[in-house]
Design goal:
single chain, 4 helices, mainly alpha, Arc Repressor Mutant, subunit A
């Protein structure tokens, strides 16, 4: 599954960190994204959404704080 496209298609006009985190949280809660799924890198998603990588990084931090995302760091 292409998670970048799924996230981009459902994010809509709100490209803020809160909006991106809310969108991904909904995708997780609805089962579209499941535990163990690999999400795109910060840079890849930022490029796809045409936002700064710092916005996506902030969204990732919000999701981690909410217990919805666990990052493994660079591989």
């Amino acid at each position: 599954m292409n998670h970048i496209q799924t996230i981009a298609d459902t994010t809509g006009a709100d490209r803020s960190a809160a909006g991106i985190a809310t969108t991904i949280g909904r995708l997780i809660n609805h089962g579209t994204l499941e535990g163990g799924d690999r999400l795109p890198t910060v840079r890849a998603l930022a490029r796809s959404l045409d936002v700064s990588p710092s916005i996506v990084a902030d969204a990732w931090r919000r999701l981690q704080h909410a217990g919805l995302l666990d990052t493994a760091g660079r591989r």
